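Weekly puzzle thread! Below is a chain. First person to post its structure in token form gets bragging rights.
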Amino acid sequence: MSWQERTLLLLGDEKVKKLNDAHVLVIGLGGVGGFAAEAIARAGVGKMTIVDGDTVDPSNRNRQLIALSSTHEESKAQLFEKRLKDINPDLNLEVINMFMDEQEIEDLLSAAPYDYVVECIDTLTPKLHVIVKSMAKKLPLISSMGAGGKVDPSKARIADISKSYNCTLARQVRKRLKEFKIKKGFKVVFSPEHIDHSKVKVVEGMTYKKSVIGTISYMPAIFGLNCASVVIRDLVERD
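Winning reply:
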């Protein structure tokens, strides 16, 4: 019995073959990106490139797939390499265990004709580099906005970036994209649910972030699964 039996029953041979033939890039394997990457692999995408330079922290355990008491300080990218290959041993998987600067993002996006880019970075500058460079290369892109501080799953939305609202991260992204004359043209997952800003904590000594925000177990997963749904549905409907 094929491990893809249920997917084949739902989608049919032709659409499953489109997934098997596709190459998807997932950048960021935290609460959102980890669920996105796993759902994409489970759908039968045949080739993936996954990128993350972080290691598991105890604070990740409330929301991240690979964050366990037994995986503290281990590489997220390497943990997902083992997990995704365990799901699909035939998966053609490239694993990049590093934080990327602007030039490295350029090199990554030029390295292959990706069928989809899934951007799940939670810091603004590298997020913008991925978005701008993906747009310049005309790569299909789904980008996750802020899942932190949100508790109502029914408010999660998929829309063009121009249609996002009441999301602090989306507002910052839209503002910065104006410098590149980008106002629309890629999908985002966002929630217009208002954030209680007392749940945001400014921290010192962190390399990539100036603040952290409260999160609940299911919201990053919902954002990630919405990202995966966009990728899978768009891939199977391509001519």
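Puzzle host: Confirmed. Bonus trivia for everyone else. The chain has a mean pLDDT of 95.
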